[in-house]
Design brief:
Number of domains of chain B: 2
Largest sheet of chain A: 12 strands, mixed
Order of helices and strands of chain B: HHHHHHHHHHHHHHHHHHHHHH
CATH class of the largest domain in chain B: Mainly Alpha
Oligomer: heterodimer
Structural class of chain A: alpha/beta
Shape of chain A: globular
CATH class of the largest domain in chain A: Alpha Beta
Number of domains of chain A: 2
Helix content of chain A: 40-55%
CATH topology of the largest domain in chain B: MetI-like fold
Helix content of chain B: over 70%
CATH topology of the largest domain in chain A: D-Maltodextrin-Binding Protein, domain 2
CATH superfamily of the largest domain in chain A: Periplasmic binding protein-like II
Radius of gyration of chain A: 22 Å
Radius of gyration of chain B: 22 Å
Strand content of chain B: under 5%
Distance between the termini of chain A: 86 Å
């Protein structure tokens, strides 16, 4: 009798274990690392879902395109608006099913497939102990003294670099090439990605770096350092949204829908500021932590929809490249 | 190929050729100085010569900028002295960085060549009273002819696929290399056709370089010796002075950036989370496995044609290799579950060219010297390998294994394509920390990585140096 109970118990246990559904989420590396939002989001979601959320880190779009419809992903998180056209063309994504009016963003969000979960403004961060000239517009950047240089990311390899080039194109239009030619002498160098550029900035090698207006929040909160400030331009800043989407061929449709609803909930949104150092997309500013609500923010948001972004991309990059290669 | 691609191609070839030439020019006198002098600390210098090459690129770049950058040590000294400041951003910066990585490699390879000159020749030169130019012509030049073309070739191929270094230190898009174009085509545009085409161009260039340099290198220039070693050289005051200057200058050039990297990061080590130490363990295991695989392949390929084939490892862009492997594995298993296995294989392939460059000249000499005797004795292949090849190759194997292991430890490129946070290796942790604004923790991890890589390198090298004289 004892053996029978034991065997039955084991059988039931393994069955239960075998039946815990797995939600497979593809995310970028910074998201899933122990210092990113991944672990806290996983813990919060698993409390309510009776499932196992598994992150899979790596390059999102190339991987999805290599895998095609046979992908294991149920949710993809961490895309940004400048690549949504290509992502949409894969046909792999399903409508998110959430209410766009619940979002609190500087622009009206109309996309039914890609849902923003956090956002910030692309902006230049400077060290206010060394940079004393006011930086209130793009033109002010060209007036920096000789010893103070800017470091930016390459738009051909970095998503933030691409955002900068599109931002300049939005502000200057046909005169973008001329602006780049005037800014070129002030640019120290161009790096492959955000990490290298920010490392150069924190090492004191460059005095101004291209980053996001929420970057100073990290220094204020984690380091107690208030010397790094975002330069707020009168022309407005490019709004940078990070997106989450449901995969159409998911084998866990109810779980995936549950996760998308979870993204809009306070449980998820309040985790974002202190782990991903960005503004939460579905919470009004009154609910943000003080460090974020007090950050200087631009009055105007500049944004290209995905078709304009795709059309302008090659021209904008080529203008940038020619001007800086002189 | 667009105009931008052609510009990238021109720049890539130019900087790679210049880097290779300059590295060899500075490495040869350094190796000579180390070969003929014995002083306290010489062994440490010889071991640490492996260090710059094994640092992850981003760490080395930060170290170089800490010395040569606009806010770096050199400029601080210059401004203190009231002299005009220097800015290395541009071709100069790219060449400095490439020399930083490659002078130690070439110097070690040439030093190994010095060690392979039979003592009998050196003694004969002493007896004949050969000095200066004559000594160079008789002893050093033949040795250089067999080692330097290979070394030059491999530096050329390494610099061919340089990307982040060239861009950051090159100061902007003028310094675009083909690798960036491949990166953009693959990760951003997902234009696999273009990525493959550019990778083929890069491969073609590297293949050409490999064929040219391997055919230029001379076969065994000296007959075999009796394996006694000579430690005393006689040389004049002028030579001593020259050696001293070279040693001090190049040691400072190589040592300062590393010293600054360590000084900046070592304080943060006690605060590192446990996951970093687990990543360190994983890195060491992956490094060991890939080294063993690499050595096995290299011993099989230690011939001229094998060296050319083996160069494919670095001639092909790691992105393309990774994507190809991904596509190959996908029908059978989830590639991301096999991340560590794939990393081991790719690291072995990436280290293979270096290991071959180091082993091939010596293996060739051994074959020329001893194959006839072995055949006369009817030695079968296993016995040949066990009793003749490996014992005589011990020293280069030690160096090559150390290099392969250290390269694998510091490798970021491959793991980023396949990496998952659960199986992170140390370089990935470094990158994750940088991406999360935690620059001090990242510096600390860089130091751990550096020290661990050096330790691994030193252990392998030590094994190789027992019973040998370098």
């Amino acid at each position: 009798m004892k053996h029978f109970t034991l065997a039955a118990g084991l059988l039931v246990a393994t069955q239960a274990l075998a039946e815990t559904p797995v939600l497979s989420v593809y995310a970028p590396d910074y998201f899933t690392s122990e210092w990113g939002p991944g672990p806290s989001i996983e813990a919060a979601f698993e409390q309510t879902c009776a499932c196992d959320l598994r992150f899979s880190a790596g390059d999102l779009l190339p991987r999805l395109m290599l895998e095609g419809p046979s992908t294991d992903a149920d949710i993809v998180i961490g895309l940004n608006t400048d690549v949504t056209k290509k992502a949409r063309s894969t046909g792999l994504f399903a409508p998110h099913g959430q209410n766009n009016t619940d979002l609190d963003l500087p622009i009206a969000w109309t996309d039914d497939v890609f849902l923003p979960f956090d956002w910030s403004y692309v902006s230049f961060i400077y060290n206010d102990t060394t940079v004393t000239t006011p930086l209130n517009s793009f033109e002010d950047l060209t007036k920096l003294p000789d010893g103070q240089k800017i470091v930016i990311q390459d738009p051909r390899s970095s998503i933030s670099g691409l955002a900068l080039v599109l931002w300049v194109k939005a502000v200057y239009g046909d005169k973008a090439a001329d602006f780049w030619a005037r800014l070129a002498p002030h640019i120290l160098t161009v790096t492959k990605g955000w990490s290298e550029a920010y490392g150069l900035f924190t090492d004191g090698e460059a005095d101004v770096v291209l980053s996001f207006n929420t970057s100073p929040a990290y220094h204020i909160v984690a380091e107690g350092d208030a010397t790094k400030k975002a330069a707020i331009f009168d022309e407005g800043h490019y709004a940078y949204f990070e997106l989450v989407a449901k995969v159409a061929g998911t084998d866990q449709p109810e779980l995936a829908d549950q996760f998308m609803a979870f993204v809009m909930s306070d449980a998820f949104q309040s985790l974002i500021p202190m782990t991903n150092w960005s503004y939460p997309a579905a919470q009004p500013a009154s609910q943000w932590p003080a460090a974020f609500a007090d950050l200087p923010a631009p009055a105007k948001a500049v944004f290209h929809d995905e078709n304009t972004a795709a059309d302008l991309r090659d021209i904008a990059i080529e203008e940038w490249r020619t001007a800086l290669s002189q | 190929m667009t105009a931008a691609d052609w510009a990238a191609l021109r720049f890539t070839v130019m900087q790679a050729a210049l880097s290779a030439a300059l590295s060899c020019v500075f490495a040869i006198p350094l190796a000579r100085a180390l070969a003929r002098r014995r002083f306290r600390g010489r062994d440490i210098i010889v071991t640490v010569l492996g260090a710059p090459f094994i640092l992850p690129v981003i760490v080395a770049v930060m170290g170089l900028l800490a010395v040569f950058g606009n806010n770096g040590l050199v400029n601080k000294v210059l401004s203190f002295l009231g002299l005009p400041l220097i800015s290395i951003y541009g071709l100069t910066g790219v060449l400095i960085a490439h020399m930083f990585f490659n002078i130690p490699l070439v110097a070690r390879m040439v030093l190994q060549g010095w060690g392979a000159i039979p003592a009998e020749r050196l003694r004969l030169a002493e007896t004949l009273g050969l000095r200066g130019w004559a000594r160079f012509r008789v002893l050093e030049w033949p040795m250089l002819q067999s080692i330097v073309p290979s070394a030059c070739g491999i530096v050329f191929v390494i610099c061919l696929s340089s990307f982040a270094v060239a861009l950051t230190l090159g100061g902007g898009p003028k310094a675009t290399t083909i690798e960036l174009a491949i990166y953009q085509a693959f990760r951003f545009d997902f234009d696999l056709g273009k990525a493959a085409m550019l990778a083929l161009v890069q491969f073609g260039l590297a293949g050409l370089a490999a064929i040219v340099t391997v055919s230029m290198s001379a076969k065994d220039p000296f007959a075999r010796g009796l394996d006694r070693h000579l430690t005393t050289f006689k040389f004049g005051l002028g030579a001593a002075f020259f050696d001293g200057v070279i040693l001090i200058l190049i040691s400072a050039f190589l040592g300062m950036p590393i010293f600054l990297v360590v000084a900046q990061g070592v304080w943060g080590i006690p605060d590192l989370p446990v996951s970093v130490w687990w990543a360190a363990v994983r890195s060491v295991i992956v490094a060991t496995a890939s080294t063993v695989l690499c050595l096995g392949l290299a011993l099989a390929l230690a011939r001229r044609w094998g060296e050319i084939i083996g160069s494919a490892g670095i001639a092909v862009s790691p992105l393309v290799l990774g994507a190809g492997l991904f596509l190959m594995i996908r029908p059978f298993a989830n590639p991301f579950d096999m991340a560590l296995v794939v990393t081991i294989i790719l690291n072995a392939l990436l280290s293979l060219p270096f290991v071959l460059r180091i082993l091939r000249p010596h293996a060739e000499s051994i074959r020329v010297d001893y194959l006839r005797l072995a055949q006369a004795m009817n030695l079968n292949s296993a016995a040949w390998v066990r009793w003749v090849l490996i014992p005589r190759l011990r020293q280069p194997i030690g160096f090559a294994a150390g290099l392969a292991a250290a390269l694998s430890m510091g490798d970021l490129g491959v793991i980023v394509l396949f990496g998952t946070s659960d199986h992170a290796t140390l370089p990935l942790k470094l990158y994750q920390l940088m991406g999360a604004y935690r620059m001090e923790d990242a510096s600390a991890v860089a130091v751990v990585l550096l020290l661990l890589s050096l330790a691994v390198f030193w252990i392998c090298d030590l094994w190789g140096k027992r019973h040998a004289d370098l």
